[in-house]
DNA sequence: CGCTGTCCTTACCATTTGGTAGGTTGTGCG
DNA sequence: CGCACAACCTACCAAATGGTAAGGACAGCG
């Protein structure tokens, strides 16, 4: 159920995906959904939180103790990239939450999405190159890298339409290397 | 009128911004809007096209003949960045169109947004570093750079909320330099 | 058997959506 | 003046929105 909700919220946004559409996608009535989740807000919150938690897990896995922070961040972005490669809807959904802020304030507090960003900023701040740039510098770096990693997936449909599916596929393959290079160049000097 | 529509479509997306809300923002009734633009679709199309045309103009200005393509791309991204700095809604609106594909197919054909992407890809493909990577490689680079440039602006609200307005402002200042460096490193070797 | 609770349904509801029809006001122009 | 036309309004409409109420089907359990 949440998987279906994630797909539709990712594709059409909070406002664009009605609970009727989601339930129809599942072959149920919308009241079945409301029965399980109480309200559209709560379903959306669950979808976002679940998605963010997956990313958070990837982050934790990449944060092995003892390794230099540069390696940790690199490992995270590599793992994130391959995760999004398998499931672009994650990128789409989280990006939408970043831009729409459709989550209720109380549901936002202490969410996994916040934790991911804060941990990333802290780790970047621990790198040699950026430790003197303060929180602001690290935040700039993190946002930049995340943006570079995600547009690719969030704009999937448009890019395929504009350039053709085969060209897009080819770009996908190259993207991984180009991106890894970018992360490395940004974190080291 | 279109300015107001751009603001609201950028903030809430096509589905999330009703013509009633836009007209209320203007102090009119929604029928006044419908009178001028015929339908919500057409108003949205105008807002997107106008915004994309601004970006296209920035691109043309950066594409002076005779300069090396690396410089052209760098100049474009620098100008784009300062434009978005003044008007983040442009980034938000165009990003939404990239992800939502809310434009009708007939209105998409030959739009400024397509022209921008295609011209960028062609120019990147003309650079020394990427001329052997084909359309795919150039597309990957363009998407990556655009993503890096825009997340910052599209997620403005969330970032301000999470890290505080002052921290966000500080990151803004640093972002410009970090980004210029990133573009340069990506285009040259 | 009967009781309870979960799952899911049909039947509603008030509100909002995009859009139409028709009328009113004002302005420019012959 | 009289005519046309744009701008804008009120009044409506069918459809879709999120959500409530009430009940049926069915399982587990005493």
Short recap of the structure:
With 189 residues, chain A is mainly α. The first copy, chain A, contains 11 helices and no strands. Chains A and B meet through helix 1, helix 6, helix 8, helix 9 and helix 10 of A and helix 1, helix 6, helix 8, helix 9 and helix 10 of B.
How is this fold's topology laid out?
The structure is a homodimer of 189-residue chains.
Chain A: H1 2-16, H2 19-26, H3 30-37, H4 40-62, H5 69-86, H6 88-100, H7 105-108, H8 112-126, H9 134-154, H10 156-163, H11 165-187
Helix pairs in contact in A: 1-4, 1-6, 2-3, 4-5, 4-6, 4-8, 5-6, 5-8, 5-9, 5-11, 6-9, 8-9, 9-11, 10-11
The structure holds a DNA duplex (30 and 30 nucleotides).
Describe the structure in your own words.
The structure is a homodimer. With about 190 residues, the first copy, chain A, is mainly alpha-helical. In chain A, about 85% of the residues lie in helices and about 0% in strands. Chain A contains eleven helices and no strands. Chain A starts with a helix and ends with a helix. At the A-B interface, helix 1, helix 6, helix 8, helix 9 and helix 10 of A face helix 1, helix 6, helix 8, helix 9 and helix 10 of B. Chain A binds a DNA duplex (30 and 30 nucleotides) through helix 3.
């Amino acid at each position: 159920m949440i998987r279906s909700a994630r797909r539709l919220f990712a594709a059409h946004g909070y406002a664009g995906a009605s609970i009727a559409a989601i339930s129809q996608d599942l072959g149920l009535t919308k009241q079945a959904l409301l029965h399980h989740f109480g309200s559209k807000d709560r379903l959306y919150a669950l979808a976002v939180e679940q998605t963010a938690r997956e990313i958070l897990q990837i982050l934790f896995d990449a944060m092995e103790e003892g390794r230099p922070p540069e390696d940790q961040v690199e490992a995270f972005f590599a793992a994130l990239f391959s995760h999004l490669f398998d499931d672009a809807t994650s990128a789409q959904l989280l990006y939408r939450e970043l831009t729409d802020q459709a989550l209720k304030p109380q549901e936002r507090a202490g969410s996994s999405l916040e934790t991911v960003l804060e941990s990333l900023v802290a780790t970047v701040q621990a790198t040699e190159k950026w430790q003197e740039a303060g929180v602001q510098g690290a935040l700039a770096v993190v946002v930049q890298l995340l943006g570079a990693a995600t547009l690719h997936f969030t704009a999937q449909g448009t890019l395929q339409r504009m350039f053709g599916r085969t060209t897009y596929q080819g770009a996908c393959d190259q993207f991984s290397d180009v991106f890894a290079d970018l992360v490395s160049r940004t974190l080291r000097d």
